[in-house]
Design brief:
Order of helices and strands: HHHH
Radius of gyration: 25 Å
Helix content: 25-40%
Largest sheet: none
Distance between the termini: 55 Å
Number of strands: 0
Structural class: mainly alpha
Number of helices: 4
Length: about 100
C-alpha cells in the first residue's frame, strides 16, 4: 500500500478525518474578555485559551485569592533584578568576545 501514493494518501486521509473527532480542540477565541495584549489573545496553547482573564470587578488583581494590591514595579525590580555587586565568571571568560 505504501508503494502506491494515491492509495496511501487516500487511506491516510480517511483515517485522519475519521478519527479527528477523538482529539479535543481548544476553545475558540472570545472577544468578550479584556485581554492585556495581543499575545494573550492569540495564544494557541490549550490551557491559556481555556482560562479567561481576571474580570475587572474582581476583588484582587490576580483572582479571588491574594493581596488586594500588587507591589510597586520599582520595588520588585530593585529586590530581584538589580545587581548589588559584580560576580565575575569563575572560568574567567567573557560572553561578549564575539561582538
Amino acid at each position: 500500500v505504501n508503494n502506491i501514493p494515491f492509495l496511501r494518501n487516500t487511506i491516510m486521509k480517511y483515517v485522519l478525518t475519521s478519527r479527528s473527532h477523538l482529539i479535543e480542540s481548544p476553545p475558540t477565541y472570545n472577544v468578550n474578555y479584556g485581554y492585556k495584549s495581543w499575545e494573550a489573545f492569540s495564544n494557541l496553547s490549550y490551557y491559556t485559551r481555556a482560562l479567561p482573564p481576571v474580570p475587572d470587578d474582581c476583588p484582587t488583581p490576580m483572582g479571588v485569592k491574594g493581596k488586594k494590591e500588587l507591589p510597586d514595579s520599582k520595588e520588585i525590580v530593585e529586590k530581584f533584578l538589580l545587581r548589588r555587586k559584580f560576580i565575575p565568571d569563575p572560568q574567567g571568560t567573557n560572553m561578549m568576545f564575539a561582538f
